[in-house]
């Protein structure tokens, strides 16, 4: 396959970063061949198989400078030692080691593959190195203390660090209604320099689409479970494009070729190879069964077996090493298959005796001391910014909100199904309530003698508010957990801030909810014949709807799964209905429970509509009795408004906080 080296970036991205260092580096590269660059750029000579056994030993990291000049040097590398991961659920049988003293490195300008049998710990290692798995993950203890970049300790768990490197997860997290072109363009807009012109962004996007062979599906929506879109392979390549378009210096990919046919897989790895070379990026990927052509594209190999390092070093030295250990590559055999074959079929003890599982002896006191002495990076100092564009050079919050809002509108237009369902549900319930309670509120309340006569109108009002609550919260609960992975990926890669995300969603919710409430209230108001002002009726149901939506977003932010969120619904809403005063007056509630009537939004909405309907239009003692049952007072209406609105803000801010916390820990 013909390499596209030099096509993708050079044509589009101005080389304003080239400096004397870069020129010097090019000279040095000619002098120092790839194979000869060892730890910290110290030359390593691989003369024969014996010397190859532990290539990494020959250039210990502590031979290098204590603190390297943090320029963008090609001999910089991500280096990790003693990475441990244990799972402990408490019981004796529930404790096991997933990663055991794992070590390795990924130099800039190279593609480093992590291979191994299923369950050997490839994904776990990638997650630990990329800060996605930390000791805060349930039942897991992680030791990633000795991860360095260019010889200096790197705190991979810091959000600021993670926002500067790229991670392509195995599961795609793309907005379902965006096209590959829009998804890549969105990423470019928000993560490249803010002064990029529209033409430049279009050109960069087109190049990316071209490189990833996405031209034919560039304008088809990504799609999801219910919406047909591009194929799985195209989706995977789009996910890669979304990350690569920002030219990060450190790129993690979890099984990027899974789901791709051999041709597409090869092309994808070729693109990664080109990016590594052109952008001096460290590409680290896990892979299951690479073809021999893909194998040839790897520069380094970390072979894991039962959580330990079976082989670590240059890819082209792997077969000589296997031969030296008594496992020469059979003729006509794919080396990648052979590596997996040996790892899977031989017992660990036999492999150890044969010379595999090398001891990492560059992990000496020297490195430990150096790490103790060196400052821990939070990921934002110069040497650790793996993103080609710093956060402060990207677009600000207003622009972020604008682009997010444009995407929301696009999503709204392309995925009309949720709006149709919402409108249909609102119409159905409103008509049903209208027919059932037809003219129920038209009576002259002052002439009524029994409290029971008022109950029908009270029931109609309660139903109007309850249906408002359910019809607004359910769509949010269903959609939000699905959208959350997209938010977490984009947030943790520095696309936008949490307030920008919420602001864009908020505007859409304001409009959609207003539309929905207008339909529902118009039908019910005129069919039931309420006597309060229509504007007030609309406003109470609208604020109630917005508060319920905020509660739904808060629940949706807390749980990862839509089904869990829906299961929580009765626990959240049933008490509100029970404590509304309709089924049992407040005075008859047990004292230790009656305070609950003061915390639920529904109670305040009920108090408001009852005051407006019966307080202002009725001077009979029956109406007074009804207001007393729910503890409503016409002089306190401004309090009810205040609390209802405050609850809206409270749930919104809590959701914002939860999402922010979740994004800090994991994406
Ligand atoms: N959070 C966790 N809780 C419990 N077990 C875990 C956790 N993470 C990983 N494991 C276990 O650790 C082992 C390694 O998992 P990992 O996903 O890293 O393997 P892998 O090499 O990527 O496998 P595959 O190729 O099948 O994806 C597996 O046995 C897995 O079940």
UniProtKB/TrEMBL annotation:
Q: What is its main location?
A: membrane
State the annotated membrane topology for this chain.
Answer: Multi-pass membrane protein
* GO cellular component terms given for this protein: membrane
Q: Where are the transmembrane segments?
A: 419-438, 458-480, 506-528, 534-555, 562-584, 638-659
Which superkingdom, per the lineage?
Eukaryota
An example Gene Ontology molecular-function term: ABC-type transporter activity
Entries under InterPro entries matching the protein: AAA+_ATPase, ABC2_TM, ABC_transporter-like_ATP-bd, ABCG_transporters, P-loop_NTPase
Indicate where this protein resides in the cell: Membrane
Q: By its UniProt entry, which Pfam families does this protein fall under?
A: ABC2_membrane (PF01061), ABC_tran (PF00005)
Q: Which keywords belong to this entry?
A: ATP-binding, Membrane, Nucleotide-binding, Transmembrane, Transmembrane helix, Transport
Annotated ABC transporter domain ranges read 78-331
What PANTHER family has UniProt attached to this entry? ABC TRANSPORTER G FAMILY MEMBER 28 (PTHR48041), PROTEIN SCARLET (PTHR48041:SF139)
Could you tell me what this protein is called?
White-brown complex homolog protein 30
Source species, please? Answer: Seminavis robusta
Ranked from the top, the taxonomy reads: Eukaryota, Sar, Stramenopiles, Ochrophyta, Bacillariophyta
């Amino acid at each position: 396959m013909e390499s596209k080296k030099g096509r993708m970036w050079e044509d589009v991205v101005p080389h304003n970063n080239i400096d004397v260092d870069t020129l010097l580096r090019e000279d040095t590269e000619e002098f120092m061949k790839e194979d000869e660059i060892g730890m910290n750029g110290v030359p390593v000579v691989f003369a024969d198989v014996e010397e190859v056994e532990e290539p990494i030993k020959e250039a210990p990291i502590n031979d290098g400078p204590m603190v390297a000049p943090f320029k963008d040097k090609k001999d910089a590398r991500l280096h990790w030692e003693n990475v441990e991961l244990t799972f402990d659920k408490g019981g004796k049988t529930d404790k096991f080691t997933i990663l055991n003293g794992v070590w390795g490195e990924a130099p800039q300008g190279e593609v480093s593959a992590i291979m191994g049998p299923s369950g050997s710990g490839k994904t776990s290692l990638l997650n630990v190195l990329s800060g996605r798995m930390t000791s805060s993950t349930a039942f897991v203890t992680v030791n990633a203390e000795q991860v360095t970049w260019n010889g200096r300790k790197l705190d991979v768990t810091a959000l600021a660090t993670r926002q500067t490197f790229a991670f392509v997860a195995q599961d795609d997290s793309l907005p379902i209604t965006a096209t590959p072109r829009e998804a890549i363009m969105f990423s470019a807009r928000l993560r490249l320099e803010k002064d990029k012109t529209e033409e430049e962004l279009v050109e960069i996007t087109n190049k990316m689409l071209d490189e990833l062979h996405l031209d034919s599906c560039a304008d088809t929506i990504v799609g999801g479970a219910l919406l047909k879109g591009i194929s799985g392979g195209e989706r995977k390549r789009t996910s890669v494009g979304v990350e690569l378009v920002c030219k990060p210096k450190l790129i993690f990919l979890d099984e990027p070729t899974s789901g791709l046919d051999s041709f597409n897989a090869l092309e994808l790895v070729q693109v990664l190879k080109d990016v590594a070379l052109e952008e001096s990026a460290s590409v680290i990927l896990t892979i299951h069964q690479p073809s021999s052509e893909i194998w040839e594209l790897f520069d380094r190999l970390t072979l894991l077996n039962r959580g330990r390092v079976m082989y670590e070093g240059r890819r082209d030295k792997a077969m000589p090493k296997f031969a030296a250990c008594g496992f020469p590559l059979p003729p006509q055999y794919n080396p990648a298959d052979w590596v997996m074959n040996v790892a899977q079929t031989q017992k660990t003890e036999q492999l150890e005796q044969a010379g595999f599982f090398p001891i990492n002896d560059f992990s000496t006191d020297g490195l430990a001391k150096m790490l103790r002495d060196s400052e821990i990076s939070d990921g934002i100092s110069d040497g650790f910014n793996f993103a080609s564009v710093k956060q402060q050079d990207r677009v600000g919050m207003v622009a972020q909100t604008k682009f997010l809002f444009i995407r929301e509108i696009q999503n709204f237009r392309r995925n009309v199904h949720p709006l149709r369902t919402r409108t249909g549900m609102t119409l159905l319930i409103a008509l049903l309530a209208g027919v059932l309670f037809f003219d129920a509120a038209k009576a002259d309340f002052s002439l009524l003698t029994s409290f029971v006569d008022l109950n029908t109108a009270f029931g109609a009002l309660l139903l109007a508010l309850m249906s408002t609550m359910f019809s607004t919260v359910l769509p949010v609960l269903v959609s939000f957990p699905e959208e959350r992975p997209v938010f977490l990926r984009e947030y943790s890669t520095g696309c936008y801030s949490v307030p920008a995300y919420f602001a864009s969603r908020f505007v859409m919710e304001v409009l959609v909810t207003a539309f929905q409430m207008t339909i529902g209230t118009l039908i019910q108001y005129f069919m039931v014949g309420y006597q309060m002002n229509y504007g007030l009726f609309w406003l109470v149901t609208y604020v109630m709807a917005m508060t319920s939506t905020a509660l739904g977003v808060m629940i949706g932010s807390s749980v990862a799964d839509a089904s869990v969120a829906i299961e929580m619904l009765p626990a959240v809403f049933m008490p509100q209905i029970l404590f509304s005063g309709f089924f049992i007056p407040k005075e008859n509630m047990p004292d230790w429970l009656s305070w609950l009537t003061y915390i639920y939004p529904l109670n305040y909405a009920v108090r408001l509509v009852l005051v407006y309907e019966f307080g202002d239009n009725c001077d009979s003692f029956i109406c007074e009795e009804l207001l007393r049952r729910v503890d409503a007072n016409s002089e306190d209406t401004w309090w009810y408004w205040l609390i209802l609105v405050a609850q809206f803000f409270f749930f919104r801010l809590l959701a914002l906080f939860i999402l922010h916390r979740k994004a800090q820990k994991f994406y």
